[in-house]
Amino acid sequence: MSDVNAATLADFAASEASPPVRGYWASVGHRLRYDYATLFFLSVIIVVALLAICAPWLAPFDPTKTAMAYRLKPVGFKNFMLGTDDLGRDMLSRLLWGGRTSLIMGMVPVGVATVIGGFLGVLAGFVGGRVNTLIMRAMDIFYAFPSVLLAVAISGTLGGGIKNGMLALTIVFIPPLCRVAESATTLVRGLDFVEAARASGATTLSIILHHVLGNVLSPILIFASSLISVSILLGSGLSFLGLGVEPPTPDWGLMLSALRSGIYIQPLVCALPGVAIFITSLSFNLVSDGLRQAMDVKA
Amino acid sequence: MRLITERPDTRPTPAASRDRGGPQQPILIVNGLRKYFPIKGGLLQRKVAEVKAVDGVDFSVMKGETLGIVGESGCGKSTLARLLMHLIPKDEGELIFDGDPVDDIRGLSLRDLRRDLQMVFQDSYSSLNPRLPIQDSIAYGPRVHGVGKAEAAALAADLLNKVGLRPSMFGARYPHELSGGQRQRVNIARALALDPRMLILDEAVSALDKSVEAQVLNLLSRLKRELNLTYLFISHDLSVVQYVSDRVLVMYLGQVVEIGPVDAIYAAPRHPYTRALLDSRLSMNPLERMSEPPLSGDPPNPVNPPSGCRFRTRCAFAESVCAERQPRLAAADGGAHLVACHMADAESGHGRAGLSAPLH
Amino acid sequence: MPLDALADATPAGVQIARPLVEVRDLNVRFVSRDSRTNAVNGVSFSLQAGEVLCIIGESGSGKSVTMRALMKMLPEGKTRIEGYLRVGEHLIADMTDRQMRAIRGAEVSMIFQEPMTALDPVCTIGQQIAETIMRHEGCSRKVADARALELLQVVRIPSPERRLKAYPHELSGGLRQRSMIAIALSCRPRLLLADEPTTALDATVQAQVLVLMRKLQRELGMAMIFVTHDLGVAAQIADKVAVMYAGRMVEYGPVAEVLNSPRHPYTRAMLASNVHGHARGEDLDTIPGSPPDMRRPIRGCAFAPRCKVARTSCAIEPPPVVHLGPDRYFACIANDASAEAAAT
Predict the structure, then answer these.
(1) Which residues of C touch A (CB under 8 A)?
(2) Does residue C21 sit in helix, strand or coil?
(3) Which of B108, B221, C46, C174 lies in disulfide reach of B100, CB 3.0 to 4.6 Å?
(4) Shortest Cα distance from A124 to chain C (angstroms)?
(5) Mean pLDDT of chain A
(6) Which CATH number fits domain B26-245: 3.40.50.300, 3.30.390.50, 3.40.630.30, 1.10.10.10?
(7) For A128-149, what is each residue's pLDDT tens digit?
(8) The predicted structure's pLDDT at residue B7
(9) Averaged over C283-310, what is the pLDDT?
(10) Would you call B101 helix, strand, or coil by DSSP?
(11) pLDDT given at position B15
């Protein structure tokens, strides 16, 4: 009896010195709050997203309205703050509207692929055995092709258009996400607390929901966030090749492609879509990196 | 100081009323338990070899006793624990829990067994979910068995009290905010949450610092008294096993080599391996230093264990009979002390067979 | 004979008077963005050539950190090391990374608890030994290979020719630890640092490795700092023992004196809480509570909150260091007759 009492008292003393009780996600948030570089790039993404969302109100002109008299005008020409393209369309308006398509191309395929790939990966990792072999070998088939080639091939087969482009990108992203989810799950599955949960008589579904998901979510999310910039670039690439977004819909990749002939006349204007892609994908990459640092802590 | 708080019994049946066979019925009988792990190789993942992790193990555990299991790494003691918990499927053998065979069709269902039999793992950190507050980890088992949320939380708080952690201070914490000893207390509380009758302690104190180990050992002995528990205490530390056990079982390469009352085994080991193990204990007195190691070589690979007696490759008394025939586990003296060695069997044909004096 | 070859190389010029290792007021702090851990606080000790010092302590006591500071084997950028550190004629604090690399593995080498992580999984044991020798001594491959074979014989690895070509995963735990000792001995170090090298081994194998290490240490005249939490291991191998608690050395002295007549309450409590030879059914004498949080500065004696003989003054001022002889001290206020009587 006295043993317990003494131990409890000493626990008191020890706990005084311990850090405040904080859950995992709260501590991730806490670490992010002091990571100023990540916060900066996160705000860049937010600004880009806000600009794209508010395009209908912010854009001074109709992004598809051509004006042959004002072709390839420089930055700051009359009312065209960022100049005009080879068909005389206002670059600022096109960049704002183009941001919408580019961001959608970046985020939707990754989001959908995270859900599907994550589900397949957790299933393969937790159940193991034949289910694992079946799912993972199927993923390996996709791995046999370079991702760019695969995206081009799929959207080439399906035909152009933004929906088919996104579908192609989703298919490209499922295998790597599935693999990350599978390896994270396999790791967690071998830990004693999963064994302990099984020993208490829990069902597989209950174990996955209560014990596995919480522990595999962060590696999956970190990886998914790093794919967004890849998706923006790939989406732009598809548009550049004429496979994703179809003209005259504004899209950064498509704009870059269309303006490549004008590069000798207005180099600055023609580089603008490229700059937009660069800044956005860089920001996503750096935020993903910051997220990894904040989440990847062995408590 | 209320250690055992009065609480309404929320669980379907209290442990005591689940006693079926009476005090003379062993709580657990293990017969011919066997588990081989296949090693797969080659392009087609064919089975190329087998690890004979547990190879024909028989023993029983009486109600209220502590059976210590000792052996070196690879002797199959952890596999044995997982087989008993049904965390891995057995290849062969029979488990009888309090008179009922564990079998979903005829006997005790797995779900019922897991209420009665729980386990504490060695690694206090990896056996707790890092994303769950510890009170939720403890309450998880009862929740799975249909106890309501509020009741399960009250139960968790009560158990934390029992293991010497103040619920108001520790309940909401995450595993990484606790020390190793505190985490192992939580693991014990978690194992007790289903009100089991028997606990398997798989190296439960081995990873702890010595002073913390002593605290946890005291806690375990108090809980055993108060809750009327039976322990299966697996450890590689012979001094700890001697301190906690009533009987000891010594394993070598997946087989039982000796089993018997702790004092008999520690005072007069009959198997040369047991003796070597005991001699390997380090004296705390710097003036009594070991000049020669009691045993040379490492334990052989369980993939390809030696023929006959598995210990013969490291045994100083090995003779040709040891390679030819496998010794059977038989009574060495008076029944309770069993040993599997040709030297203990008068008819084995071993040169030292039947010499009644224990190995000294 | 391989052993002679090694023994020849032990430096002849070491004077008895001057210790091989000298550490004065060592402080090690780990600094991170949100906390500062005072891992080692004012540790001083010295070690003669050919002597074995065991640093005993529980996890977090700073025993490993103290030893690693001697080789600057601590995470760079996060660690602040202060104090006077000398090994042989090298002043560790002033040395560049490059100079440190030249000493590591040559004059001072180290073995670890888990040999599997310390050995390179893609190289054979023979390659790893030979490369260490070639790197530090610049000899030919052939000479190095021959020495590698000798070394495996020295550490009593059966059928050494075959083991030279083995990869670490093909060896058992005991053989891996012997291989690591062989690599550590390959350049005839004057000082061997051992970080719980027998903790992960089985009881029978631990006994073998301990006996081997003591034999080799004697034959090579090598000094050794051996970190362990196991008093039994210390009793087997140490000449001197230093007990650490919360980053401080609380007791120091010849092994027989410290283990048989401990003076510091922590050493006494640690010995008393050991299950070895304890009667069944009787509760163990435990040290209540847990060690202090090293992120907070500790006023007074760090052990005071758990100490049976603590007085009010213990929490206020740091305990005095009581010297009982040139090689024997402890840090406790309770050194007068009454406290001793109470404790014995």
Answers:
(1) 33, 283, 286, 288-290, 292-293, 295-296, 305-306
(2) strand
(3) B108
(4) 28
(5) 81
(6) 3.40.50.300
(7) 888 888 899 988 888 888 888 8
(8) 45
(9) 85
(10) strand
(11) 64
